[in-house]
Amino acid sequence: MRLFEMRLNNRIFSCGYFFLILSLHLLTPFCNAGAQSVSINIHADWKFRKAGDTEWLRASVPGTVHTDLLSNKIIPDPFFGVNEKNLQWIDTCDWEYETRFDVDDSLFQRSHCEMSFEGLDTYATVFLNGQQILSADNMFRTWAVDCKKNLKKEKNHLVVRFESAVKRGIAEAKKLPYTLPGDEKIFTRKAQYQYGWDWGPRFVTCGIWRPVKLIFRNAFILNDVHVIIDQLSDSVAQLIAEVNITVEKPATFSFKIIAENGSLDSFNFERIVRPENKTTKLTFAIKNPKRWWCNGLGDASLYHISVQASTSGSGSDQKNIAVGLRTLQLVQEKDAKGKSFYFRINGIPVFMKGANWIPADNFLPRVSDEKYLQLLSDAKDANMNMLRVWGGGVYERNSFYEYCDSLGILVWQDFMFACAMYPGNKAFVDNVREEIRENVIRLRNHPSLALWCGNNEIDEGWKNWGWQKQYKYAEEDSAKIYIDYLNLFHKIIPDVVSNLDPERSYWESSPSIGWGHKESLEEGDSHYWGVWWGMEPFEMYKKKIGRFMSEYGFQAMPELRTIESFTDEKDRSLSSPEIKNHQKHPTGFETIDHYLNDWYKEPKDFESYIYLTQLLQADGIRTAIEAHRGAKPYCMGTLYWQLSDCWPVASWSSIDYNGRWKALHYAVRESYGKYLISVEDTGEYFNVFVTSDDTGFTKATLRLSAVDFSGNVLWRDSAFCYLSADKATVAYKAKKEDLTYSVNTFRIFLKMDLVKNGQTLATKNYFFKKPKELLLEKPEINYDVRKEKDNISITLSSNTLAKNLFIRLKNTDARFSENYFDLLPKEARTVSFHSALTVEEVRLSLILRSLCDSY
Ligand code: BMA
Predict the structure, then answer these.
(1) 198 alpha carbon – ligand 1 mean position (Å)
(2) Is 457 a catalytic residue?
(3) Separation of 267 CA from ligand 1 center, angstroms?
(4) What residues line ligand 1, using a CB cutoff of 6 Å?
(5) Helix (H, G, I), strand (E, B) or coil at 612
(6) Closest CA to 688 of 674, 703, 698, 699
(7) Which tens digit of pLDDT belongs to each residue from 59-69?
(8) I want to staple 209 with a disulfide (CB 3.0 to 4.6 A). Which of 121, 359, 556, 609 is the partner?
(9) Tens digit of pLDDT for each residue in 697-737?
(10) 430, 496, 417, 500: which is closest to 462 by C-alpha?
């Protein structure tokens, strides 16, 4: 391969002409012929083989060994059927990758050349032209090495050998006098979910999973620019750019800070930079700054700036940064009931609405920027303003955080430790320290980044999950394990964070207190798993409300089309090994059944089961969200478990692996709306709460009516409400008896609309009975399909209530504007979607299912 594609920072140029690729926020290109550093990807002509084999096969870089085996047809689709079980041999082998390349003469002349691996998974030894240049042992770090002396102009031979992480982990485990919870995986700094999770298969893969580059330079390199907001007011933002430069000898540098479209004054500086003092501070200001807001509160305004450094005779180098101007604090103040836990953004306490994020694939290089954007847009569409990047996955790519910046999605970022105890030896701790350092530097400029969190459920696990008994720890071993824990999460990691990113809060462990303890509802963040793990009824969500609900959840099946992607028709039943293999929770189906029996009649077939599990999941999580938001400001955040999947599976996700929204995602969009109507049944009273996440006060009218399933209105009332953003408001109170007296509550519902100036702000249909008790009749649904350009609209109406109407097209995907909704009697409703299909094709492929069709 000849290296002809060149990257200048995040721009690629070729043959002397600049062109931009895939830069999220494009700046005007700078024609920088004297570019100080030039990086080129080494991604072509890779081959791989099992160590010991003679034959080389084509490989992809970035990639993984599993996906390379798949594309060479050596293995079948790892996600299909029970293939997972037969592919476990892969992680017990060592694997080798190699490529050959030439270097362009002009680059070869440069005084320095570094080879940089942005991701090696995990135990890798790298050889360039027969010489070992690198040995890596952490998937989350960038491994860069000076390779100038090993590099040739032509016929370079690059080899990367991966050692089985599983074998290495097992060997490490044997060195300890005790067993640590988490088995062999905890010894390896590698995405922990690869070893299997209760929603994911076990594929302990390896490979060059992120870009590998050669970076050529002459005298200096601009390593990093950290932009700090020093002061922020409506009239001015005072900023500091801390510029980190490596030089060999003292030199006078000119620095320039400029912005996209000239939206800023440009700032020029001259400074002497010395080898021993890498960081130079440049101060600059933005007048009348536009604030960055999270979704729901305003625009996520960004200033795209470029910081350029040049020194005479050596060309220039630059970094492009998207700056978001906001203040953000995690507020924890003692109060009468415990301690608050909320985020204050630009001075405003903001209720966080979101979900937990796990990796979007088992094989991470397959996650395209388009997939990131789709999932994050889906989060935004569902009115979310925060995602928690969970500690058993990975620090995501830069583009993930760039999309979060521009979509206004805040990120609660765990460090990558989950549900296990980790070693405390020096080599491990040093490795972690470097991992934290690199990732904090990489991500700290993002305005979306709200919080660093040490780990997922380790404090909770250690104190509550019975590990001491299970592993029969001697007292001194137990003490040593906990001391190692404290050292890592209460000292080493927070020290790095406070040095490198002092403005951001650090939270040791999520949750801070386990859900079995009442204090978990009084302070800190809570993972409430009494529903699901504890088999408590959904109603408990109304009681178990903490200050910030960072995890809770309920499983559902993915859509039939997704199930079809990993099964043959004959295997589509709950008893098939194929379906069972796509349920990773030990008692997943039993747990679903337990709740299903409580809420729904027995489904008549597999497809009905899928549909009902989705409704059930939506019922549960809706109950939780309404309770959490209704308890504002005591509770100031709700992040359900989990946004999406890493493979097609029965899980807690609201969006399945193929991007299909479950009923839950539609329900969440409604429940996370700016205004939310919820009902509290006290036994004697119905209290109707309205929660507003608007700023300031809202005046609106709540309209209520009791409607029977045929559409007859039996009762009506309305109430004027004055809604505060600070807390949920009781907008209506009715004596239960007065409302339900003399009517058949199995056949009516309470229809509520919150209206302001003729505009509907929120709606809610409240049913007095569980779905299995409702006296539903088979609806006759009429529909009319229309098309304008590629927008198709279907207007539906029904003679009687069509509960939870699910609309789909045979053999085609469509993202409907609404789905799984109650089609009310005598009320036409229009749903729309984009499609190239004709009206006739839509008519022929339209499938409608409502609750009645399930039994
Ligand atoms: C939470 C997470 C995950 C797990 C999920 C569902 O506690 O932290 O470890 O997958 O529960 O059980």
Answers:
(1) 7
(2) yes
(3) 48
(4) 197-199, 419, 456-457, 527, 551, 641, 652
(5) helix
(6) 703
(7) 999 999 999 99
(8) 121
(9) 999 999 999 999 999 999 999 999 999 988 889 999 988 88
(10) 417
